[in-house]
Structures are given as C-alpha cells and as structure tokens.
Specification:
By secondary structure, the protein is mostly helical. The protein has helices at 4-19, 24-31, 35-42, 50-60, 64-67, 76-86, 92-108. It is built from 7 helices and no strands.
C-alpha cells in the first residue's frame, strides 16, 4: 500500500538524484538493483530497505535524515488547496496574471 511518507520519500530521492544529474538507471546501477525497483521506490510504491537508504544517502552525498526532509514536497491536491487559499489575497491584476500563466502552461502541453 502506498503511504504519504513512502510517496514523499520517493519524490525526495528523485529530487536529489536529478539535482545531481544522475539518471535513474545510473543510480540503480550504483545501488546494484534493477531500475524497476528504483522506479517503484521513487514512485512511493516500495520503501527502500535500511541498507539501501544508507547507500542512497551515501551516493547522493547527504545524511539519511536529509532523505526525509520532505516538508516542501506537496501532492497535487495539497498544491491546489494552497493556491485556492492564496488567490483571494491577490489583487485583480495578480489574479489575471495567474490565469494567463495557467492558460499558457496548458497550451504548452
């Protein structure tokens, strides 16, 4: 079962990996695991073993505790709620800007 912690831990590992310009297959090779296992870890479907947590932290050059520094990682629903709560504080021009930005992002898809 996918938990919020597993999901955020996976996203954090992916965030740190990409910040170091490591491809998923490269990190998987360094961990001596199949890429599919790392994919499951990064997607939150599987928790890494304690041994793999230590290896991941070592390879990424962080303390294990930094892997759990997930307060800034938000789900889509959390982000939507935050944005919805922020919008009433904006003036009309700022709301129009946000609207145009979202329209342009949608067009880029």
């Amino acid at each position: 079962m996918k938990s919020k912690l597993s999901n955020k831990l996976g996203l954090r590992i992916k965030e740190l990996r990409t910040a170091r310009n490591l491809k998923q297959c490269e990190l998987a090779d360094m961990l001596n695991m199949e890429r599919s296992n790392l994919t499951r870890i990064e997607s939150g479907k599987q928790r890494p073993t304690d041994e793999n947590l230590e290896k991941i932290a070592d390879i990424l050059g962080v303390n294990i505790s930094e892997l759990f520094d997930v307060a800034h990682i938000k789900t889509k629903d959390e982000i939507i709620k935050i944005i919805t709560e922020m919008l009433p504080d904006f003036d009309e021009k700022e709301v129009q800007f946000c609207y145009k930005l979202l329209l342009n992002l949608k067009l880029l898809k």
